[in-house]
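Recap from last week: sequence in, structure out.
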Amino acid sequence: MNFRGKLIVFTFLLLLSSPAAMAEALSAEDKVEATPLAPGLYLLEGGGGNVTASIGADGVLLIDDDMANMSDKLLSKLKELGGEAPRLIVNTHFHYDHSGGNAAFGPRATIIAASAVRDRLMTEQTLWRQKHPPVPRPGWPLLTFDRELQLHVNGHSVRVIHLPHAHTDGDTVVSFDDGKFVIAGDLYFAGMFPIFHREHDGSLQGLLQATEFLLKVTKPDGKVVPGHGPVTGRAELQAYAAMLRASIRTVRQGIRRHLTLEQIQKVGLPAICEPFSHGFATTEQWIAAIYKDMQADRRSSDPKQRRT
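Predicted structure tokens:
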């Protein structure tokens, strides 16, 4: 199933079932499709978020590992491409459509993640109003960091950078060969309005700052692998950043004019934002997410409201 077809099914199931049931229904029929990015470097698309694999003399490095029930299919695809079970795994954040394979691959792999990711995988978490138990011990990251680390794998120089308080508190960007290929995780939803999780210490402002950072580290002719959606160039990432800035500016102006959420939604967003409305969130839902985030920030910064 291609991404657009998966998105249509995802949206339909979202209306009918829990996120866990929805994810299982999607991935049960999915296979893992591989797209070459460079010799030995592949985009792998399965049932959850995008996976990037480097396969070579040093073994297999995975950036994210899909959902738990895709692990066997993911391993089969790696072997088909000339690889084996992963030696190294980097989690871009803790969400289970990106870290679901940890428990299956963890006994043989070194899992690398921001410290916040390990903390969340070790404890019960709530995602989309559903509680998730701690991940089994083999799925916990063994190597954690808070700022940045460098890997040297299969002839690639791989920079691993933690960008806190964006999509979540544990977001990690992985840059191959000084920005020739940049894996963004869920900091980047290609061609779609993004999602940020305040309940996981994410923030709208952090998401914008992370996007600006992505632009800085991506070469002019570089490729960007999003958490969801197709691989893009830097130009598409620039359009995504422009959409974020325009969206934030429009909602902020509405709040300053004392407009209600419904009034701002009626006014809508600038035309450059419209192409992004076909994804996981509509324009009205995206405006509501920004509005609620800004109002929450205002309440938290107002001493009078903090006491209530």
